[in-house]
Design a protein that fits this description.
single chain; alpha+beta; 3 domains; three-stranded antiparallel beta sheet; about 15% strand; disordered C terminus; Band_7; Band_7/stomatin-like_CS; Stomatin_HflK_fam; SPFH domain-containing protein
Length: about 375
């Protein structure tokens, strides 16, 4: 028995090894058979090299060493940016256009078996379609028709990628870069346009300013004219009242022709005081002139003395009941004074007509009359 024990121990060891290998194989087979698919993903399963099924999200069991996963497909929307592509416009300008495509896999089987790489296919289809679309536009239309280009690209791509199990949701032009020379010309054009708008706005501002200034000057001139007119009216009224007061004072003071003649003679040197009056004329008939002045102020006729004692001193020959109404209206009082002065002038002319040999006036020795003696 001591001889057989080593052989039994060796057989048991071999058996244990075989059992261990079988256990490991079973564990590996179970691990490979059980698969958990994440959300928004799909697995394409092939059995012995042929398409078997598409596993969606969840727990799935495969046949070990018979079924295998061909590809994992992401069902979420993807964004891919393509490098700039040179495109020639209808006016023979080369522009560089960057595109961005938003797509989503709707049929994982078609995306795997209908095309080798649908991303490369989308890129090449985008480039060719972009050249066809932009080739029929000039540079100005290309820069201002982004939405139109995006819509045409999306329609062509969605129609072509439908059989690939891919849906193109959006196509965007990220950048449109014209040549450097064209960019300089466009900047100059925009600068000139801005300068033109600035000049127009400046001219409109100057116009409005001048209009407002003219309106202000017009209103100021109108107000100044109204103020001058009112001042002239008030000044005339004041002068009329002053004349009425002087006229009333003369009547109340009972001035006689001698006093009036004396005042008249005192004013003659004032008339002759200026240097330009070398020779001047005076009326020869002082008596008629003084009579007319005295008559204008209420005196008697020629050769008649004004009866000073006939009325009390300080009383006026003008009726006091009429003065308040005359003073109340300066314009009427001034008109009345002018009428009385005209009447006095007519009396003087009538006196000259009675004595035609005397004439209206004569030159007195061609010499200025000496001033009256001082009092």
């Amino acid at each position: 028995m001591t001889i057989d024990s080593p052989s039994i121990s060796a057989n048991q060891l071999i058996l244990y090894l075989v059992l261990g290998l079988v256990a490991i194989f079973v564990i590996v087979a179970l691990v490979r058979a059980v698969r958990i698919v994440p959300q928004a993903e799909s697995y394409i399963v092939e059995r012995l090299g042929r398409y078997s099924r598409t596993m969606d999200a969840g727990l799935h069991v495969l046949v070990p060493f018979v079924d295998q996963i061909r590809r994992k497909v992401d069902l979420r929307e993807q964004v891919v940016s393509f490098p700039p592509q040179p495109v020639i416009t209808s006016d023979n300008l080369v522009v560089s256009i960057d595109t961005v495509v938003y797509y989503q896999v709707t049929d994982p089987k078609s995306a795997v078996y209908e095309i080798a790489n649908f991303v490369v296919g989308i890129e090449q289809l985008t480039v060719t379609t972009l050249r066809n679309v932009v080739g029929s536009m000039d540079l100005e239309q290309t820069l201002t028709s982004r939405d139109q280009i995006n819509g045409q690209l999306r329609g062509v791509l969605d129609e072509a990628t439908g059989r690939w199990g891919v849906r193109v949701n959006r196509v965007e032009l990220k950048a449109i870069d014209p040549p450097a020379s064209v960019q300089g010309a466009m900047e100059q054009q925009m600068r000139a346009e801005r300068d033109r708008r600035a000049a127009i706005l400046t001219a409109e501002g100057v116009k409005q300013s001048q209009i407002l200034t003219a309106e202000g000057e017009k209103q100021s001139a109108i107000l100044r004219a109204e103020g001058a007119a009112q001042a002239a009216i008030l000044r005339a009224e004041g002068e009329a009242r002053a004349i009425l007061q002087v006229f009333d004072a003369i009547h109340r003071g009972d001035a006689d022709p001698k006093l009036l003649a004396y005042q008249y003679l005192q004013m003659l040197p004032e008339i002759a005081r200026t240097e330009s009056n070398k020779v001047w004329f005076v009326p020869t008939e002082f008596t008629a002139a003084l009579k007319s002045i005295a008559h204008g102020f209420g005196g008697g006729g020629p050769g008649e003395d004004v009866p000073v004692s006939s009325r009390p001193p300080g009383t006026s020959p003008v009726d006091s009941s009429e003065l308040p109404s005359a003073l109340a209206d300066p314009a009427e009082a001034l008109a009345e004074a002018r009428r009385e002065s005209a009447a006095a002038t007519e009396d003087a002319n009538r006196s000259d007509a009675i004595h035609p040999h005397r004439g209206a006036g004569s030159v007195v020795d061609q010499q200025p009359i000496p001033p009256a003696p001082e009092q």
